[in-house]
Structure formats: structure tokens, C-alpha cells
Amino acid sequence: MESSSDENDIENSQDQEGKLYVVDSLNNLNEHCMMHSHHPVWEYREDTESPGCLMMQSSLRCQSWFFVTSIITLIVSLALVSFVIILIVHTGDKIDELSRKIVLERKSIGDLVKFNYMVLQHLNQTELMDNIENIITV
């Protein structure tokens, strides 16, 4: 039991030392950037000697490009969605107009069929009358 608690203490102290080292390194990097940079960190300078500053500038530049790309992508997708919606509405209007024309043509065809039937009936009656007249005259 005592050996495991000693190992835990050693691991905890090493972990804390590692954390302190990281914090100290970040503080040194920040101081180094502030000492060598007279311009804001996001401004690109070729004479910057600190790799940490270049990394921060590159990171900010990447973030800004990502943001601009995201905005452009959103605008393009919004334009495409609105175009599709307009096409759907336009197509719906055309389908309604076509269905109205089909209904009107169906009514017209029905009227033509009735008219044809009436003409055929009239012709049949006139033929019958002609036949009757021919029989009477004979």
C-alpha cells in the first residue's frame, strides 16, 4: 500500500511540474511575442523572428479564411435553396394551368361526342325517311 501511494505522489508531482512547465513556456512565448512585435499579432510581418508569433498569425489567418469560406458557402447554399423554391412554385403553377386546360379539353371532347351522336341520329333518321319515301314512291 505504501509503495502505491508513493508512486501516486511521484506521478502527481511530475504531472504538476509538467503543467507548470507548459504554463511557463506559454508565458515566455507571450513575452517573446510582445518584445519582438510592434504590430498587432494578426498583422503579417516577414521580419518577425518568433515562430510562436508566426504560428499565431497563421492560425488567425486560417480562422478568418475559414470564416469567410463559411459565409460564402452559406450565401451560395441560400441562393440555391431560394432558386429551388422558385422552381417548385413555378412548376406548381404550370401544373395547375395544364390541369385546367385538360379539364376544359375533356369538357370540349364530351361536347363533341354529344354533337357527333346527334349528327349520327339525324343522319339515321334522314336515311330512314329517304328509305320510306323510296318505298312509297315505288
From TrEMBL:
Keyword Membrane belongs to the record: yes
Protein name: Leucine rich single-pass membrane protein 1
Keywords associated with the record: Membrane, Transmembrane, Transmembrane helix
InterPro entries noted in UniProt: DUF4577 (IPR028099)
UniProt xrefs under PANTHER family: LEUCINE-RICH SINGLE-PASS MEMBRANE PROTEIN 1
Residues annotated as transmembrane: 65-89
This protein's encoding gene: LSMEM1
Pfam families per record: DUF4577 (PF15145)
